[in-house]
């Protein structure tokens, strides 16, 4: 499969393929950029300066397709993310679907076993996308569905044991599903050689540190060190306002804390991280070929001189696959289905400088958002929800007949399956009203609440 890359083959430095690949006789399936690459390299045309499509788009069937599922409506929704589109298919290809911004949205050459789709079939927001991928894999490529999650466990356990030997290992535990599953998997491989370190950065949600430590110790029999390092993180963030600089400062501080605690676990040699495939992609890709959307603290934020060697058993998986792996390992739902929370914590939910006072304000607003969504029974329907503080923005308001000049709070709630794409959650107006009233009434310094209705793309799930 050919996927990823920039939003157009016309972007400077766009990746290309050796044209000989198309003559190998192996089935090829191009997704988004991959479809554009197929069209361009085989003699078709990719338009320039087109309107582009981001988010939900209507896909219309224009002929019989060997890729689109037979039971899909002639016009159905899919998820797009491109600004140029294929306008003319190469000779020998059949166009079987189009969209408003992509005249050639699906192209097929069954004789050469080459197929392409401009939309993203792999995301939950393309409801017939997985069936399209299944048709390619099982019908066009003839691959039998024999893979099972249990094989990931067996392969990783064997690989970790061989690599680690009798060395000591530490795991950077955040309390989220990624690091918890990574810890459980490594513990299955090496047992007591693993020690987990939970770093309290001071950037966690209200009462979260206590909950994380209690939940972990109750469910997993792994040694846990609780490191209170809030002061060191606030010191590192003093005066820092640029988002990438924040992430890199936080990423480096994490590593320095882990290195600090290796002496307490007999000079640990390895560091386990719950790095996922989306982390790698948004940080520039595992080979640095992709655009940097934002440097995740556990990828692009790592210092060059770190002393610990990384073990990242989940780096080829998406979030939904990690949840399935966690269930396979026997982790409880309260850990597996915990909402994602960024490693830099509230540091990337405060626009501007991060200070203890601003964190305390945001913690209170965020707690109200989470509480009211739970009261409305929406927790499992929503992928991620939070409050963000526009600390460098002020809003004029009136409270008690007096003029105020306070902070706006942004509420963000999205639906997703793997975090690569996301749509804004349709939270009921009544719930939004309660959250807004409570935040303004209960959180000092806030006089305005707004709701973010941006999908990903073009926005990211987090504000920074």
Topology:
Blueprint: E1 28-31, H1 33-41, E2 45-46, E3 53-61, E4 75-82, E5 86-88, E6 94-99, E7 102-109, E8 114-117, H2 129-140, H3 149-164, E9 169-173, H4 177-190, E10 194-200, H5 208-219, E11 223-228, H6 230-237, H7 243-261, E12 270-272, H8 277-282, E13 309-311, H9 319-328, H10 333-336, H11 356-375, E14 384-389, E15 395-399, E16 402-415, E17 423-424, H12 429-442, E18 446-451
Parallel strand pairs: 1-8, 9-10, 9-12, 10-11, 12-13, 16-18
Antiparallel strand pairs: 2-5, 3-4, 3-6, 6-7, 7-8, 14-16, 15-16, 16-17
Distinctive features:
5-stranded parallel β-sheet; 6-stranded mixed β-sheet; 464 residues
**How many helical elements?**
12
**Strand adjacency order, main sheet:** 1-8-7-6-3-4
| Strand residues, percent | 15-25%
Inertia-based shape = globular
Largest sheet: 6 strands, mixed
**Which residues form runs of ≥5 with pLDDT under 50?**
284-290, 292-300
The tally of beta strands, per DSSP, is 18
Share of residues in helices? 25-40%
In angstroms, what separates the terminal alpha carbons? Answer: 31 Å
Report the oligomer: single chain
Structural class: alpha/beta
Mean pLDDT across all amino acids: 88
């Amino acid at each position: 499969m050919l996927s990823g890359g920039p939003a157009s083959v016309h972007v400077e430095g766009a990746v290309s393929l050796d044209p000989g690949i198309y003559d190998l006789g192996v089935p090829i399936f191009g997704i988004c950029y991959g479809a554009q690459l197929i069209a361009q390299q085989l003699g078709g045309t990719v338009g320039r300066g087109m309107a582009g499509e981001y988010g939900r788009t209507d896909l219309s069937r224009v002929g019989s397709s060997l890729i689109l599922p037979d039971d899909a409506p002639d016009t159905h929704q899919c998820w797009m993310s491109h600004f140029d589109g294929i306008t003319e298919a190469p000779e020998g290809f059949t166009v079987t679907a189009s969209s408003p911004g992509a005249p050639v949205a699906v192209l097929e050459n069954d004789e050469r076993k080459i197929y392409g789709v401009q939309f993203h079939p792999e995301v939950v927001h393309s409801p017939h996308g997985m069936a399209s991928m299944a048709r390619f894999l099982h019908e066009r490529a003839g691959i039998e569905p024999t893979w099972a999650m249990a094989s990931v466990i067996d392969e990783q356990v064997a690989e970790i044991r061989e690599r680690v030997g009798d060395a000591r290992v530490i795991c950077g535990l955040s309390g989220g599903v990624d690091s918890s599953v990574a810890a459980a998997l490594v513990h299955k491989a090496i047992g007591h050689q693993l020690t987990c370190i939970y770093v309290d950065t001071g950037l966690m949600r209200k009462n979260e540190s206590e909950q994380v430590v209690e939940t972990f110790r109750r469910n997993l029999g792994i040694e846990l060190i609780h490191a209170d390092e809030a002061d060191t993180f606030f010191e590192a963030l003093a005066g820092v306002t640029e988002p990438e600089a924040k992430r890199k400062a936080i990423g480096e501080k994490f590593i320095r804390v882990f290195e600090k605690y290796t002496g307490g676990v007999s000079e640990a040699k390895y560091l386990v991280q719950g790095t996922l495939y989306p982390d790698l992609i948004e940080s520039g890709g595992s080979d640095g070929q992709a655009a940097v959307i934002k440097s995740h603290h556990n990828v692009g934020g790592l210092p060059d001189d770190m002393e610990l060697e990384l073990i990242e058993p989940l780096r080829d998986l998406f979030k939904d696959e990690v949840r399935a792996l966690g269930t396979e390992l026997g982790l409880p739902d309260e850990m597996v289905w915990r909402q994602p929370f960024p490693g830099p914590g509230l540091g990337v939910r405060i626009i501007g400088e991060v200070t203890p006072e601003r964190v305390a304000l945001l913690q209170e607003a965020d707690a109200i958002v989470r509480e009211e969504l739970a009261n409305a029974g929406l927790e499992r329907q929503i992928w991620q929800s939070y409050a963000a503080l526009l600390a460098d923005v002020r809003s004029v308001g009136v409270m008690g007949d007096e003029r105020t000049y306070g902070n706006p709070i942004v509420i963000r709630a999205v639906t997703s399956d793997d975090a690569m794409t996301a749509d804004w959650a349709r939270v009921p107006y009544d719930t939004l009203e309660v959250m807004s009233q409570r935040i303004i009434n209960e959180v000092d310094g806030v006089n305005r609440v707004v709701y973010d209705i941006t999908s990903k793309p073009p926005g990211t799930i987090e504000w920074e």
